[in-house]
Amino acid sequence: MASKTQERFLAKPVNHLYMLLVSAGALTFIGLIMVFSASSIRAIDTQGSAISIVLRQLLFVAVSIPLAGYLSKLSLAKWEILARLGLVLSISLLGLLLIPGLGKTVNGNTNWINLKYIDVQPSEFAKFLMILWASYLLARKEKAGRHNVNVFGLIGPGFLLIMAMIMYGRDLGTTSVIAAILAGLLFVSGIQLRLFGWITAAGALVLAGLIATSGYRAQRFLVFLDPFAPEDYKYAGWQPAHSLLGLASGGLFGVGLGGSRQKWGNLAEAHTDFIFSVIGEELGLVGTLSVLILLATLIYSIFRIALRAQEPMVRYACAGIGCWITVQSFLNIGSATSVLPVVGVTLPLVSYGGSALVATLCALGFVAGAALRDPAVRKEIVKKRKA
C-alpha cells in the first residue's frame, strides 16, 4: 500500500515542484542554523560578534529568494537572451579577477572579487551562465535536426576556456565542477559513448597532471586515505583527520547544536568546506542522513522536471543544474568523509557563501519556472487554488 501511494505521489508532476521547493527551503534553513553554529567562534575571534557571519548569509538569503521567485516567472524568450550571452558574461566576470587590486586571493586561490564589504566569486555565476549558454546551443542543434554535429566541438571550447581562466586562479575544485557539468551535458546530449569515454579519459589525465605538478595538491591527494598517518597528521592530513573526528564523535544524535569541539580552531573552514562535519558532530547520524535525504530529493526533483520539459533548452539546462548540484555535493561530502581528497568546494545551499547561494537559488528558480510552464502542473495549481 505504501509503495502504491508513493508511486501515485511521484506520478503527479506538481509534486516534483513541491519536492523541489520544500527540499531547497529546508536545506537553506538548515544551512543558516549550521553556518551560525559553525562560524560563531571564528566570527567572535575575527569580528567581535558571534552573529556577524550568519547575518551576511541571512542577507544573501533575503536577496536570493525573491530573486529566484522573479526568475521562475521569466519567459523562455528572456532566458534565451541571457543564454546567448552566457559565455561572454562568464569571460567578463572571470576577467575582472585579472585586474590588479580587484582580485582577492584566499588559501592560494585567486577566485574572489574584493568589493570591500563583501567578496564576490565570479566562478559561481559562471557555472549557471555556462549551463544556459551550452543548453541554448544544444537546443538549437536539436531543433535544426543537425544530429551529425560534434557536440564537444560545439560547447567544449567555451568550457575549456572558462576552466583555463579558473585554473589561472589555481582553483582546481571549481574547475572540476565545471568539467563535470560539461561531461553531464555531453552525456544527456546523446554523444557517442566511445567518444565520451575518450574525453573522460583525457580529462582524468589532465587532472592527474595538475595534481602531480602541484606539491600542495599532491599532498592532499596522498593523505586522504590515511590522514592520521604520523608523518601527515599535522600537515596535509590535519583538516580531513579532524573532519573525521567530528563525524565520529557525533554518534546517532550528536553532541548538541552548538557543541562542536572541532570548530574551535581545528577545522579552518568549518562553516564552508567542512560544514557537513559540523552537522555530523552536532546533529549526529540523524542530521547527516537528513541532509543527504534532502539533497537526494532536490536532485531527484530537478531531473524529473527536466524529463518532462518540452523545450530542449529547458531540458538541457535543468539536467545541467542537476549535474552541478550532484557533483558539488559529492565532492564536498567526499572531502568531509575522506572518501575523496579535499577539493575546497561548498555544500550547495548549506555552506556559507553569498555568491554560491545566490547562483544556486537562481538556478533553482529556473528549474521552478520550467515546472510552472508544464501544463499539467499549472492545471493542478489552478485546481488547488479554486478548491
UniProtKB/TrEMBL annotation:
Transmembrane segments: 20-44, 50-69, 81-102, 151-168, 174-191, 198-218, 283-302, 314-331, 351-372
The name this protein goes by in its record: Probable peptidoglycan glycosyltransferase FtsW
Pathway: Cell wall biogenesis; peptidoglycan biosynthesis
UniProt GO BP: cell division; cell wall organization; peptidoglycan biosynthetic process; regulation of cell shape
InterPro entries: FtsW, FtsW/RodA
GO cellular component terms given for this protein: cell division site; plasma membrane
Keywords of this entry: Cell cycle, Cell division, Cell membrane, Cell shape, Cell wall biogenesis/degradation, Glycosyltransferase, Membrane, Peptidoglycan synthesis, Transferase, Transmembrane, Transmembrane helix
Molecular function as annotated in GO: lipid-linked peptidoglycan transporter activity; peptidoglycan glycosyltransferase activity
EC number: 2.4.99.28
Cell compartment(s), UniProt: Cell membrane
Function: Peptidoglycan polymerase that is essential for cell division.
One Pfam family it belongs to: FTSW_RODA_SPOVE
Record keyword Zinc-finger present: no
Family: Belongs to the SEDS family. FtsW subfamily.
Source taxon at top rank: Bacteria
Membrane-topology descriptor: Multi-pass membrane protein
NCBIfam families membership: ftsW (TIGR02614)
Record field: catalytic activity: [GlcNAc-(1->4)-Mur2Ac(oyl-L-Ala-gamma-D-Glu-L-Lys-D-Ala-D-Ala)](n)-di-trans,octa-cis-undecaprenyl diphosphate + beta-D-GlcNAc-(1->4)-Mur2Ac(oyl-L-Ala-gamma-D-Glu-L-Lys-D-Ala-D-Ala)-di-trans,octa-cis-undecaprenyl diphosphate = [GlcNAc-(1->4)-Mur2Ac(oyl-L-Ala-gamma-D-Glu-L-Lys-D-Ala-D-Ala)](n+1)-di-trans,octa-cis-undecaprenyl diphosphate + di-trans,octa-cis-undecaprenyl diphosphate + H(+)
Enzyme class: transferase
